[in-house]
From TrEMBL:
CDD domains: CMPK. It comes from Natronospira bacteriovora. This is Cytidylate kinase. PANTHER family: CYTIDYLATE KINASE, CYTIDYLATE KINASE/PANTOATE-BETA-ALANINE LIGASE. It is found in: Cytoplasm. It comes from the Bacteria. It catalyses: dCMP + ATP = dCDP + ADP; CMP + ATP = CDP + ADP. NCBIfam families: cmk (TIGR00017). ATP binds at residues 10-18.
């Protein structure tokens, strides 16, 4: 039997990252923050002045991406880029490079390699649809755009990054539109995903819902 995977997909600012981290901690499983890979690639592209439509070049960079996770830290070629990749600007560039099929293909192997015993919790946009279609548990989180902007604002503030809520809301809306409308692995729930509207739910409530699904299905 295959190594178990729980996928947590959804739009930006919905709380996927936090939920995935808590589920992974609770189960003692590995964690894949797939969005961080697209963000690191975006950051590397900007640093090296690579045009954001240079698909073949970006695809090669994706295949060789020297990224490592150390707890909460994200390292690119050994350099801590955690702060730089979390800005909404970097998220916007990430969603541009993420629309390129060569980039998605280039990151596939890296993502699949995170599937290690005893199990993996993976969060992103296409974890349940493309990267781990055979996952045992698939969750799709939603929340209203206003609530997601509020959460992202709070999260950025905690990291010492200043942002304006209404600007954040329009940036998030723009990014969601791009993620949902692209041809390559658009943001959408897998047919067998369980959707959870988190708008009025606290993190512990969402965590319990996900853990009960895991208990039911594994
Ligand atoms: O989740 P996060 O906000 O860090 O993702 C940044 C961007 O990376 C998303 O807006 C999306 O365009 C892209 N992404 C993706 N597929 C994933 C994860 C992230 O296309 N599995």
């Amino acid at each position: 039997t295959s190594i178990p995977v729980i996928t947590i997909d959804g739009p930006s600012g919905v709380g996927k990252g936090t939920t995935a981290r808590l589920v992974a901690e609770r189960l003692g499983w590995h964690l894949l923050d797939s969005g961080a890979l697209y963000r690191v690639l975006a950051h590397a592209a900007m640093e090296n002045d690579v045009p954001l439509d240079a698909e073949a070049h970006l695809g090669q960079m994706a295949e060789r991406l020297g990224v490592r996770f150390e707890g909460e830290k994200v390292l690119l070629e050994g350099r801590d880029v955690s702060g730089q990749i979390r800005t909404e600007a970097c998220g916007g560039v990430a969603s541009q490079v993420a629309a390129l099929p060569a980039v998605r293909a280039g990151l596939l192997r890296l993502q699949k390699d995170f599937r290690q015993p005893p199990g993996l919790v993976a969060d992103g946009r296409d974890m349940g649809t493309e990267v781990f279609p055979d996952a045992q548990v698939k969750v799709f989180l939603t929340a209203t755009p206003a609530e997601r902007a509020r959460r992202r604002h709070k999260q950025l503030k905690e990291k010492g990054i200043d942002a304006n809520v209404s600007e954040l809301e329009s940036a998030i809306a723009e990014r969601d539109r791009r993620d949902a409308e692209r041809k390559a692995s658009p943001l959408k729930p897998a047919d067998d995903a369980v959707e959870i509207d988190t708008t009025d739910k606290s993190i512990p409530v969402v965590l319990d819902l996900v853990l009960s699904l895991v208990e039911e299905k594994t």
